[in-house]
Structure formats: C-alpha cells, structure tokens
Amino acid sequence: MKISLILATLGRDRDVSEFLESLKSQTFKDFELIIIDQNKDGKIDVIVEQYTDCLEIKHVKVSFTGNARARDYGIGLAQGRIVAFPDDDCAYDKHVLEKVVAEFARRKNLSILVAGSYDFSTRQFSIGVNSRKAQYFSRFQMMGVEFTQFFDLNRIDSSQFHLDHDFGIGSKYSGGEGFELLYRLLRAGSPAFYTPGIKIYHPDKDHYKLGTGRMLMYSTGVGAYIRKFANQKDVFMLYYIVRKMFVAPILKMTLALVLLNPKRLAYYFYNLVGIWRGFLAYES
Q1: Per-residue pLDDT for 122 more than 80?
Q2: How far apart are CA 225 and CA 203, in angstroms?
Q3: Model pTM?
Q4: Hey, which bits of the chain come out as E strands?
Q5: How far, in Å, CA of 272 to CA of 194, rounded?
C-alpha cells in the first residue's frame, strides 16, 4: 500500500530539511515524496539533493503560488494509493506511515484517517482539532487539520478529491482548504477515523500569545467555506453558522473577560471578525 506525500513549499529551507530527516527515519519505506517547489531562487535544491539517494523524491518546480493549487498539482503526479499533504514546517514521528497503513488495513471501510497534531517541544497538542480519544467522526465534529489527514484513493469519491483553489495560503481566502476538502468528502459519505496515537509534530502557532494577525488571516477561510456550502443550500451549515459565528467566539470572549485577559479577548475577537469577513466576502 504505497503512500504519496505531497509537500507544497515556499520560503522555508531548514524546516524542509527537518521534515526530510523525519522521513528518512520512517519504519515504513514504501512511499514517495512529491515536492511542489514554488521558490524562485533554488532555496531548497541542495537540501533535496542530499536525500535523493535514500528517499523516492519527485522535485517539481512550478511558476505559480498557492498552497491548494500546488497540492492539486501534486495529486496529478501521485502514484500511491494513500495520499497526504504534509506541511513544510512539520515532522513525522518515525512510526507514522507504518501506523497509517496498519489502520487502513485494519478498518476495511475506512476512507480518511486523521492523526494527532503535537507541538515539537511537549506532549501537548498543537494546531487543529485534537482529542485524547480515538474515534470515528462526521461533518458535525471534523478532526485534525490538513497536514494530519490521509486519504485512501480506492475508498473515496475521486471526483471529490481536489482542492478548491480559492482557499489556503496564497489564495483569495488564506485558510480553510483542508476543512473544505474534508467536509466535502464526509458529505459524500466517506468514513473517517481520528487517532491521537499517530503523531505528527508542528509548532503551535494558534495561540493568543503570538498575536492576532495569524488568527485574523486564517479565520477568513473558515467563514468563506461556511458560506460556500451555505450557498449550496447545505442545511448542515446552519450548525456551523450558529457554532462558529456566534456561540463559540462569544463564549471564548466572555471567558477572556472573566479572566481579565485582554490579549486572549483580542485574539478571539479577531477570530470572530475574520470568520464574518470571509463569510461576507465569499462569492460562489
């Protein structure tokens, strides 16, 4: 069961090197790495060259930018049955791919497998939606984040397996591309399972101590994908409109007020602003 890892990268070098090093240590070896390189300056050429003897790498340089577009391009080059979209600043525990294949083999109906996202320096969860409990999930409680998702191409609707180029870094709406794809596949009936026992490491950047800019930018994508499906008259979006655009941010801001934490209050306020900005700006 071969795995294709599609890595879209722009502007990073040391992080890419660390990810490649984590792949070198994988206990499961039947995988390919497809690097969609959007750099103009050969930034990672020397780094990639150091690993071509020990890893199966397709290093593809493109003239366009945009995370979703790059990943879509990589899908067209993939030879594996399982496809994933690692970030260029994440790293895999050495057993990740071995455990991914084992889960798909064990769960014969499984279409989507989602791993846990952990901060590098601790055992704490990092970005995305995580839980200590392994569980099947639906579109009411989507788990993980785009770089922790693995897809079995033999068990999903291939017509739905593509990224919307309006979402993601370098696109019209800077976030939400992973959840937009995940929601679409879940809506089409793809069974999905989350397990924290598969560990993917990524720096925790979704925290009020780092400021509000990142939250404002990425939350526009959340609002936009809610509007996209609402425009399609998907009644399930009423749940997300109530939860993400009213209840959750208001409760979080109220808690920040109670705790007298102005930075946290500003963080969740800009989360709310970003979601509404994306929701109102989205065009079908």
Answers
A1: no
A2: 25
A3: 0.96
A4: 3-9, 31-37, 57-61, 82-84, 91-92, 112-118, 135-137, 149-152, 192-201
A5: 27
